[in-house]
Amino acid sequence: MRSPNCTLDSVVGEINVDHRLEIVDEDHQLWLSPCSGGYRLRLGDQLIAPVTFSEQGEGRGLLRLVGETLPVRFAIDGDTVHLHIAGQTRSVRYLDPLRILAVAQEEGDHLAARAPMPGVVVATRVSPGEQVAAGAALMVIESMKLETVIRAPKDGIVDQVHVKDGDSFDRDAVLVTLLQEGR
Q1: Which residue has the higher pLDDT, 165 or 90?
Q2: What is the CA angle 68-24-33, rounded to 5?
Q3: Which residues of the chain form CATH 3.30.700.30?
Q4: If DSSP codes are grouped into helix, strand and coil, which group holds residue 152?
């Protein structure tokens, strides 16, 4: 199967992956989608394509942006990558969309784990009254043939599981509600 060309016209109807990065305490949203020359990158209204990265050794690589090749030095520390490109150093932190969506839904003593995309519940891993730690698997969902684990964004006690195995749901649906400990 041939990858689509890296043009603006080929963006419609393709699967794009939404990512959020924090650079110098500013939140940036970007979209990546595969194309024949690597990836198509969209930053706001700006389309950059093709984009590729090849690792050249430990902590070194080459970033190709629309025909320009830039040497890159990098160090990875958890979800933060420290980059040195073209004489500038930046720390870039990946913002997990599942954690952002769940944490943003705090209401009083409750924390809602919401669906990042429409899908179907494959397996529920928790029951009401169960104590969970941050990062614990709450359930497994499937969307577009990809399984995703929905995790607890913070420590808490399962208050309610709003869907059961086999149920379908829409994007942003409340899947599990947690009572936050210590509140």
Answers
A1: 165
A2: 45
A3: 8-95
A4: coil
DSSP 2: P
Write out the CATH class of domain 8-95: alpha beta
Phi/psi zone of residue 87: left (φ > 0), alpha (ψ -120 to 50 degrees), beta?
left
Q: How far is C-alpha 41 from the chain's CA centre?
A: 15
Comparing C-alpha atoms, which of 105, 103, 162 is closest to residue 135? 103
* CA neighbor of 142 nearest in space, from 112, 105, 167: 167
Residue 134, C-beta contacts closer than 8 angstroms, at least 6 positions apart: 151, 152, 153, 154, 155
Query: Does the predicted TM-score (pTM) go above 0.90?
Result: no
Q: Residue type at 118?
A: P
The sign of the torsion formed by the CA atoms of 128, 183, 138, 145 equals positive
pLDDT higher than 50, residue 11: no
Q: What is the rounded CA–CA span in Å between residue 139 and residue 115?
A: 11
CATH architecture of the domain formed by 97-180: Beta Barrel (2.40)
